[in-house]
Every structure is written in structure tokens, then in C-alpha cells.
Design goal:
Organism: Aristolochia fimbriata (White veined hardy Dutchman's pipe vine)
Largest sheet: none
InterPro entries: SWEET, SWEET_rpt
Keywords: Membrane, Repeat, Sugar transport, Transmembrane, Transmembrane helix, Transport
Pfam family, one: MtN3_slv
Number of domains: 1
Structural class: mainly alpha
Transmembrane segments: 12-34, 46-66, 72-94, 101-123, 135-158, 165-187, 193-215
């Protein structure tokens, strides 16, 4: 049976939705910990703020007046907005002092910025191509910043020769997510979706390569750490 291009695009788009949703939900354990301890501890709200504005911009991009026939984009990014908003509310509830104020100010700025972009492109820009170029460029920049965020973790892996703080499941899901959305964009060519997700696929592949390269050294480090801890405990008990 021959599968149409549109059918294949719908299929990879649905897979992309599933992968993206799993990435959006990956911090749930962290949020439960914050709620249980009633403190944000040393966790930063910046990743959630970055994803929040990214999803808002993609929702604007997928509007029929900007980029029609992008239902799968607006559905997953609409979910992303709601999920990240819930995380930010938790941060606002359990953070204190300057961190709470700064989080709230950044959140309000992002919301007003996205609202301003939406109003401007829908009312102030009458040429469809100009709308597409403006919002698409903002989305590419925003998504690229999100995808570049793990570079610091990758640098730490190379420096420490340990993948302890770079979970395989997260790297693999990020890779599959980027591949799905790149395929989705290429099947009915969309440059603005292709650029950031193509970059994301390359960076996530880099994470997987690092994981394969440093997995054995990580296990060795963990074994040495457990051995040292056991010897220390034995010495303390004997004393």
C-alpha cells in the first residue's frame, strides 16, 4: 500500500507530538520534589521560562493567518504552554525573595512580548510573507537557544569523562523528537521548522555519541566511588 506524503507527514508529526509531550513532562519528578519540600532549592526556573516563550511563539507561528495547515504544531505547543505555565506557577509559589520577583518579571515580559508579536503580525502586518518571515525568524532563534542549552552539559561530560548527569533516556528522546520534526518539515518543506530541529538532531546525536564514548568510564568512576564509600564505612565501624 502506497502511503501519501501527507499521510507520512501526519504520522511523523503525531510521533513528534508524543516525543515532545514526553520531554515537556520529564520535569514532573522535579516539580513533585519541590512541592513535597515546599522549596525550589537550587533548581532554576530559566529552562521552563525558555520553553514557555518558545511554545508561545510556535503557537503564533501555527495560526492559520501566519502558517496554515500546522495543526500538529499548535496542538503540541499549546500543551507545552500549559505544562510550562504549571511549572512556573509552582516556582512562583515555592520560591522566595529576589528569585520569585525575577521569575515573575521575566514571565510577564515574555507574555507581553508574545502578545505584542501576535497583535503586530495579525493587525500591523498585512503581507502574509512578512508575517511568516517575522514570526518564523523569532521561532528559529528561540528554538535554537533551547537546543543549545545542553552544550554546557556536554562540555561537562567531556571534562569529567562521566555521563552521570546526562540521562540516556532524555538524550534519546530529544534525538527522536528532533528527527520527527525535521522529517515533518521536510515532507512539506518548512524552513523555519527544519533549521532548529535539524540543529537539535545533530546536538542530540552528539550527546548519544558522548554517552557511548564515556559510558564505561562513568561506570568505573561509580564503582570506585562505591568502593571508597564502603571502605570508609568499614574503617569507621572498626574504629
Amino acid at each position: 500500500m502506497v502511503v501519501s506524503v501527507e499521510g507520512a507527514r501526519m504520522g511523523v508529526g503525531i510521533l513528534g507530538n508524543i516525543m515532545s509531550l514526553s520531554l515537556f513532562l520529564s520535569p514532573v519528578a522535579t516539580m513533585l520534589r519541590i512541592c513535597k519540600r515546599r522549596s525550589v532549592e537550587s533548581f532554576s526556573p530559566l529552562p521552563y521560562l525558555a520553553i514557555f516563550i518558545n511554545c508561545l511563539l510556535w503557537c503564533i507561528y501555527a495560526l492559520p493567518m501566519v502558517r496554515p495547515h500546522r495543526l500538529l504544531v499548535i496542538t503540541i505547543d499549546g500543551c507545552g504552554v500549559l505544562i510550562e505555565l504549571s511549572y512556573l506557577i509552582i516556582f512562583l509559589i515555592f520560591s522566595t525573595g529576589k528569585q520569585r520577583t525575577l521569575t515573575l518579571l521575566i514571565f510577564l515580559f515574555q507574555f507581553l512580548f508574545a502578545a505584542g508579536v501576535a497583535i503586530y503580525v495579525l493587525i500591523g502586518v498585512h503581507a502574509h510573507q512578512k508575517r511568516l518571515l517575522l514570526v518564523g525568524s523569532l521561532c528559529v532563534f528561540s528554538s535554537t537557544m533551547v537546543y543549545l542549552a545542553p552544550l554546557s552539559v556536554m562540555a561537562m561530560v567531556i571534562r569529567t569523562k562521566s555521563v552521570e548527569f546526562m540521562p540516556l533516556s532524555l538524550s534519546l528522546t530529544s534525538f527522536l523528537n528532533a528527527i520527527c520534526w525535521t522529517a515533518y518539515a521536510l515532507l512539506r518543506f518548512d524552513l523555519f521548522i527544519t533549521i532548529p530541529n535539524g540543529l537539535g538532531a545533530v546536538l542530540a546525536l552528539g550527546q548519544l555519541i558522548l554517552y557511548a564514548a564515556f559510558y564505561k568510564s562513568t561506570q568505573q568512576q561509580l564503582l570506585e566511588r562505591r568502593t571508597t564509600a564502603a571502605l570508609t564505612e568499614t574503617a569507621y565501624t572498626n574504629a
